[in-house]
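Worked example 4.2. Below are the chains of a multi-component assembly; read each line carefully before continuing.
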Amino acid sequence: GDSVTQMEGPVTLSEEAFLTINCTYTATGYPSLFWYVQYPGEGLQLLLKATKADDKGSNKGFEATYRKETTSFHLEKGSVQVSDSAVYFCALHTQGAQKLVFGQGTRLTINP
Amino acid sequence: EAGVAQSPRYKIIEKRQSVAFWCNPISGHATLYWYQQILGQGPKLLIQFQNNGVVDDSQLPKDRFSAERLKGVDSTLKIQPAKLEDSAVYLCASSLEGRGANVLTFGAGSRLTVL
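Applying the procedure described above to all two chains together yields the following structure tokens:
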């Protein structure tokens, strides 16, 4: 079945460091790909998405590119801030299954 | 626009007791989802409604969990009897039909602790 695998956390970085959180997927068909973020004490929020191969999603300085050849959707940010501390979830949505499948989440902590 | 409303935010019960969670989706969103998020894991879909019909309940433990969506708007998720392993955050989400159906808006969740 469809699945998403994220790099294991927790990830701890210093402010202004470069961030990469790896995400790979297995799916039949052509899924849409998402990154959701969960800040402490809050619900899941959509961070960015890409709906077809080579699309780049971006928001709040974060970027991810849909790579069909490597079945990946890695999240990157050039300079992280303390306020980026949260749990990040990679997810996919296939038209056939009509549901969102999540990875296990990666907890990110940014130290000042 | 108002978001997805859920209640209660927190609930503590003993095993074998029952509990119910309520969700009010965004107005006009035809599709409603209930996810279970166990600590340290990603959310897992329990049940998906399209209007008031069930689209997918393949991962709902039907011996103890039930859900309904009356009149295609609000939804209630019930657990009876609860087990220790049901301790989790129960997330409700909604989405539009057709284009945009793959973007879900989540509520803040209902955290259940079973003792």
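Take a moment to check your reading of the output against the notes. The mean pLDDT of chain A is 93. The radius of gyration of chain A is 13 Å.
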